[in-house]
Specification:
By secondary structure, the protein is of the alpha+beta class. The chain is 35% helix and 36% strand. A six-stranded mixed sheet has the order 2-1-6-5-4-3. It starts with a helix and ends with a helix.
Amino acid sequence: MINAEESEEIYVLYQQLIDAWNKRDANGMAELFTNEGELIGFDGSLTSGSNEVFSHLKPIFEEHPTPPFVYKIKGIRKLDSDTGIVRAIAGMVPPGGKELDPSLNAHQTLVAVKNRGNWQIELFQNTPAQFHGRPELVEKMTNELRDIANS
């Protein structure tokens, strides 16, 4: 069972990751990962290790107007004393837009490990939430995120 302090620490790690993305800060994101930590992006790209995460994200942030995430935590739990999982849903408002773009909705999973007393990211996966053939689920997720974006 996870206590409130540990839940907060793991939440803060996730929040730091999202803040770094929203600031388009490749170094800020990369330094949150362990040396072997993996990032699986929205397009399926896989990077391993904080150096590779940085090398992957830097040109993305420099060359593309990446929209910021709007998110909602769906759960935080611990697997053991040094491993936790965050599950969230996320959406984005494209640059110049005013509404969430449902095609950018995603499920996010972060696996955190405690390393020398500090939580770091072992895995972050950002999976498209397309719900093929189930538009009602796309609408439900978008509405849930819209409530967050408008609050």
